[in-house]
Amino acid sequence: LDHPAGPLLARIAAVAIALGALATLLAGLRGELVQLRPALLPRLEGPLLRRLRPPVLAAALALVWLGGGLHAVPAGHRAIVERFGAPLPAAAPPGLLLRLPPPLETVRLVDVEGLRRLPVIDSGTALLCGDQSMVSLEGVLHYRVSDAHRFAFTAQEIEPALLALARSALTEAVARRTHDAVLTHGRAQLEAAARLHTQAQADQLQLGVEIVSLSLSSTAVPAPVLQAFLDVISADEKRQTAINLAEAHAARVLPEAGGTAVTTLARAHAEAADIAAEAHRRSSLHRALSAGLPGGRSDPTTRARLRIEALEAQLAPRRLIALPAGVTLWTGDAAAPVPAALSPAAEPRP
Q: Cys-Cys with 138: which of 85, 123, 160, 277 at CB 3.0–4.6 Å?
């Protein structure tokens, strides 16, 4: 009948049976069972029968039955009272609880403050990451009861349901991340995402639990793919080394190229300025010479000076040879007296 005093009465009965068996064994060893006197049994049964009269026995049984309505609710627990199998809406707090004795009312105790531990994934279980690589995880779920009624009556077994939800959430979270995120920097985000997803599913099913944490106690690479994983790490390190070398080369070459470009551009601007200045000088010289020819007629003095300056510019890089007036010099193309070359040209006739 699920009486609270049932375990105690069972222990008392067990002790009484054990004592009776011991007394029977000792009596057999002393020979009293073989030579049992006729007056021995009435002498033993008389006081017991006088004390255990039907009214006294009925009162004792009634008192024991009524005592089954007294319950002690430990700290951190809630008592759910079921009246004829239907639970009452309010859960009783810790303390001494007095209810109707069973089977009229029964009391179920639920621990609402204790932290419960549930292994989610055993060591060596391999999961598939988002980059098609494998990781080996070991996870543990910690939870406590948030609603005693839902925890006691929603499902027949809460932990198998929580185990399925946590494994599903953890598998989905791992499938959304790369193996680098699972093994290194993204482990905390993975645990938080799996815990929130498990809590949402548990609330949807009204299991009456609060997920305190879903932690990964170990993350590693499965032994069958360890060598391939090391090869991938080595290739990634080589790739990163090549990237660093390229960035260093770019950091060295780009400033040099920029300086060369600035120097070339400045030199081009300077040459352009020199060309423009020379053109301006020649233009000014041409205008000045044109202005020195009044009336559009040639000035003999100006023309002679220009001819002498042109000869001076042409003969400047050459060796000069002084000859008498009557000596002819062979220059390679034609023989002509030097004084004739220096003589002023005849003025053109009008």
A: 123
